[in-house]
UniProtKB/TrEMBL annotation:
PANTHER family: INNER MEMBRANE ABC TRANSPORTER PERMEASE PROTEIN YCJP, MALTOSE TRANSPORT SYSTEM PERMEASE-RELATED. SUPFAM superfamilies: MetI-like. It comes from Labrys neptuniae. It is a multi-pass membrane protein. Coiled coil: none annotated. Belongs to the binding-protein-dependent transport system permease family. This is Carbohydrate ABC transporter permease. It is found in: Cell membrane. The keyword Ligase does not apply. The chain crosses the membrane at residues 21-41, 53-74, 81-100, 112-136, 148-170, 190-211, 218-239, 245-267.
Amino acid sequence: MSFARYRSGGIGMRICVRAGLAAFVIWSTAPVVWLVLSSLLDQMALIARPPDFAAHNFTIGNFATVMGSAAALWRSIFNSLLVALFSTSIALALGAPAAYALARLAVPRANAIAFLILATQMLPGIAIAIPLFIAISRLGMIDNLVSLGLVYLSFNLPIVIWILRGFFLAIPTGLERAAAVDGAGILQTFWHIVLPISLPPLGAAAVFAFVEAWNEFFFALILTRQSAQTVPLVIAQFAGQYQTVFGQMMAAAVISVAPVILLAILFKDQIVRGFADGMMKG
């Protein structure tokens, strides 16, 4: 539905659109609200059927316990931060030039190459889990942050290339032609002309890659043991054999998602602009 059609529509159409948007917002934010409420309830209130949301059951004891005694959680947050920054920075450093080459240089079958790059995301992780584990174990890099970061890079890099290629295709060629007239080469044009106007899609791609690496669970489960464990693994450990400490698990989850939410709030404009510009022609 176009904006002009929405403006020219009647009251019924506007009510339907706003009701749909409200339903979408409620549907999207309900899990976050439930997560926060659960982190503030004691164990007995959480396991009641239905959960007891009486005022006297709310407490910050779950956060005090997690922050005071779960040293593994803080180590895992640090590990997740290192791995996410490592994979994101390399994905941008390699993905931006690759995307520009596919968008602007005379690369044979550039569209087919771009599609094949994106098609790597369609391969389920379980299909490569065993050979990947064997290869990394033979290299002696199990429970290693570098190997985990390289694995995350392998599925972040295609998305970064796809997002940035769409944006580079949308850039008017007149800017690059003017730079060529002034004697600038391909690398100079890319570094001094294209990159400075590509900050929104670069920011969007960076946030997407960071969140993907931060939330990843499956490969972290099979490639780490103790020292390189990431946040999702430590949160899962609150589910024991005989009892699941739901309140502390939810509190740990709130602590772990706080950096991602803060990142999204700080860069919301860049994310919206970047995905809008990058996906239009991608």
